[in-house]
Design goal:
single chain; about 350 residues; alpha/beta; eight-stranded parallel β-barrel; two-stranded antiparallel sheet; about 45% helix; globular; binds NADP nicotinamide-adenine-dinucleotide phosphate
Length: about 350
């Protein structure tokens, strides 16, 4: 990563740790171990939200940050609250985790059986009280970033929310403010002149959201810490391709860029390299609770550039990935990580 001194948090790691599954899919102990291992390998940006892990993630994260707070950046959010989980569902969670661990193909079914997180409309009181509650759960005096979680355009236009932003910054309880949401919401927040230092959006070689936003907003993105996510969750999947011909063509095209067989590994390396390259001065969030994912992902951090991102996107643009034609995948954009 080439740090840009004009951006906030120039010491933030190029890969960030996404905590959306911490306390739901992933139990506390393996979650803490995964965060500690990532930290040892240089990851210092941790992304969380009140809704993550069905409401458990911030508390578990606080156990990890104890004694390390000054070496770690925390971004939390406000605007989406966790689902109400019944006592029976909570008691059955370890059983569900064990079943999914043995049969990963059941993960989607297990996720869809869970109650969804709920979006609430923003108000000055809600933003303030959400931050206070997050600080308590995180057992800290401040968060590095407080981001509005999937705000609508009208949420951002509210005068009371804008005034609250100023007073939160003055209080020092959040060192910076951000928007974690759609490119449209981010554009609105920036054009309204909100005091934002951070934006967080989905980006990958199929969607290429950051390249488009950069082209559209140019200088408005200067001086922001850009954080991207959804590298694998919305990345290209081999099962979206039809027939051996597509697979062979993809393999040959990736080969030309230096990604070699097996194809699955070439695909995920190119997918992650795209994300690291398109956001080479920012932070790319990944979920990496599994040791093999973590090692793989951290091993890809090196020099990246816009040119590499373009090369990879050009390869993927030649294939009919399901996300482009599957309208349900777009509808998940409103709260994509709620079921992580
Ligand atoms: N609106 C928002 O604010 C928003 C929306 C979405 C995401 N996020 C943030 O971004 C974080 C990441 O979420 P995401 O949706 O972008 O998830 P992701 O990083 O794309 O991960 C999705 C899945 O891919 C797996 N994976 C990780 N590395 C892999 C690799 N090298 N090869 C194959 N599979 C791999 C992960 O497994 P394991 O975890 O089991 O290792 C996880 O099951 C979230 O935790 C959250 O912090 C924010």
């Amino acid at each position: 990563m080439i740090p840009d001194p004009r951006r906030p948090f120039p010491g933030a790691s190029h890969l960030g740790f996404g905590c959306a599954s911490l306390g739901s899919r992933i139990a506390a102990r393996p979650g803490l171990d995964a965060m500690a291992a990532s930290f040892e390998m240089g990851v210092n940006w941790f992304d969380v939200a009140p809704s993550y892990g069905d409401g458990n993630a911030e508390v578990i994260l606080s156990q990890f940050t104890r004694g390390r707070r000054s070496q770690i950046y925390i971004c939390t959010k406000c605007g989406i609250v966790p689902p109400k989980v019944s006592l029976i569902a909570a008691a059955l969670r370890p059983v569900a985790r064990a079943i999914v661990a043995r049969a990963p193909s059941l993960r989607r079914a297990a996720a869809s059986a869970r109650a969804p997180a709920r979006r609430i409309s923003f108000s000055a009181e809600q933003v303030q009280s959400s931050l206070e509650a997050s600080l308590k759960r995180l057992r800290t005096d401040y968060v590095d970033v407080l981001a509005l979680h999937e705000p609508s355009v009208s949420d951002l236009e509210r005068d009371d929310v804008q005034t609250t932003f100023e007073s939160i910054l003055q209080s020092g309880k959040a060192r910076a403010l951000g928007i974690a949401g759609t490119p449209e919401a981010i554009e609105t927040g920036l054009r309204l002149g909100l005091p934002l230092s951070h934006i967080q959006l989905s980006d990958g070689p199929i969607e290429t959201c950051l390249l488009s936003l950069n082209a559209k907003l140019e200088r408005l993105l200067d001086g922001l810490l850009i954080v991207t996510h959804s590298v694998f969750s919305k990345g290209p999947k081999l099962d979206a391709l039809h027939g051996i011909g597509d697979l062979q063509r993809l393999s040959a095209a990736l080969n030309e860029l230096g990604y070699h067989e097996p194809l699955q590994d070439a695909l995920r390396a190119a997918t992650l390299d795209y994300a690291l390259s398109s956001n080479y001065q920012g932070t790319v969030l990944v979920s990496m609770f599994s040791e093999s994912h973590r090692k793989f992902n951290i091993s890809r951090i090196s020099e990246h550039s816009d040119a590499r991102a373009n090369q990879i996107a050009n390869v993927f643009a030649k294939f009919p990935w399901a996300i482009k034609s599957d309208p349900s995948s777009m509808s998940k954009l409103s709260n994509p990580e709620a079921k992580s």
